């Protein structure tokens, strides 16, 4: 009896399915194809899970700097005047640089006449309720840092995963639907070193954290040699300016630009990129001493910082500040001159003490 009842149920289910296919004019072959697409979509969702956005905490940002994202370049020049220079970035926007090259450094990322991102470090910045030099604990009174930060745009979803080092050194907080604040901390002092304000599309281009997503990601930078040369030159100047602002924060003497030493630094960055290695020593065994001697650079002492695959110059600078050996060179008060060389995303600083 149980067998007969089972057969009857299966027959009724098959009859119902046939009725639905006929009613909607779908062949059995087409029906199987449709089910396959649904299964494939579910598989993709499992591999790239969508994390629901958490309700944003109420954050009151009074500082003028936070209000510039979304404003026009015309408003910027009307308020602050012309920038010291305009540097091309690798991500479609240009950096408008404002700095006294000693106490304060701000660069605004402008694309199609609109401000998309800001990086700032130094003294007397209008960033209320937080300030450069405040402790980590003081900053967390205003921002809640989490290991997962999500962003949704239409059917696309993105989740940034921060590891322990990220949370300690460069945590990020979402302050609006499309705007984030990245806080860079000096892990040796536990104080805020600099801030970056950026829109979601800029964050997705930089990809500073591990990312899990459903949807599309922006393409990686694909620039011509001429375009890269402009980007590299801009990043070299940014590293030089930020170096002196950082040195001033620690009461160290400013360093002067040295063009010959910069050429030495550039050739090393280029060599590392072209020959796929990362070291203070070239594949032929030459170190900084030999590279400086080859360009007839005379000095009393010298030091070198290298970095690779950071999304831009400010990120590389914060990396050096948080590495003991690199920090020692960055803040060495004996050095008098600096040469910077950037090739694609390889960065070299060469410090020298001149007699």
UniProtKB/TrEMBL annotation:
The residue ranges of the SCP domain are 241-350
Q: Which organism is it from?
A: Lentibacillus populi
Which protein are we looking at?
Membrane protein YlbC
Q: Pfam families under this entry?
A: CAP, CAP_assoc_N
Q: Which residues form the CAP-associated domain?
A: 70-209
């Amino acid at each position: 009896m149980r067998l007969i009842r089972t057969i009857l149920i299966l027959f009724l289910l098959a009859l119902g399915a046939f009725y639905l296919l006929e009613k909607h004019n779908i062949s059995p072959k087409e029906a199987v194809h449709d089910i396959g697409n649904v299964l494939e979509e579910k598989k993709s969702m499992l591999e790239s899970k969508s994390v629901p956005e958490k309700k944003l905490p109420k954050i009151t940002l009074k500082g003028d700097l936070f209000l510039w994202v979304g404003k026009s370049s015309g408003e910027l020049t009307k308020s602050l005047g012309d920038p010291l220079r305009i540097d091309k970035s690798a991500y479609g926007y240009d950096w408008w640089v404002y700095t006294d090259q000693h106490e304060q450094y701000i660069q605004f990322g402008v694309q199609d006449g609109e401000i998309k991102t800001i990086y700032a470090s130094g003294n007397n910045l209008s960033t209320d309720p937080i300030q450069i030099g405040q402790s980590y604990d003081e900053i967390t009174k205003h921002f809640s840092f989490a290991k997962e930060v999500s962003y949704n745009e239409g059917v696309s979803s993105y989740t940034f995963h921060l590891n322990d080092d990220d949370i300690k050194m460069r945590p990020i907080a979402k302050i609006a639907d499309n705007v984030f604040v990245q806080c860079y901390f000096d892990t040796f002092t536990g104080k805020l070193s600099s801030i970056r304000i950026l829109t979601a599309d800029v964050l997705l281009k930089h990809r500073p954290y591990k990312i899990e997503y459903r949807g599309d990601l922006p393409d990686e930078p694909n620039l011509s040699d001429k375009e890269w040369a402009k980007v590299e030159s801009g990043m070299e100047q940014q590293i030089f300016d930020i170096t002196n602002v950082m040195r001033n924060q620690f009461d160290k003497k400013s360093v002067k630009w040295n063009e010959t030493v910069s050429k030495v630094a550039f050739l090393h960055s280029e060599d590392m990129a072209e020959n796929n290695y990362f070291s203070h020593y070239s594949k032929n065994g030459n170190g900084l001493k030999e590279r400086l001697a080859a360009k007839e650079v005379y000095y009393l002492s010298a030091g070198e910082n290298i970095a690779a695959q950071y999304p831009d110059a400010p990120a590389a600078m914060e990396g050096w500040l948080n590495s003991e050996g690199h920090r020692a060179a960055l803040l060495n008060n004996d050095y008098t001159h600096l040469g910077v060389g950037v090739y694609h995303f390889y960065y070299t600083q060469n410090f020298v003490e001149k007699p």
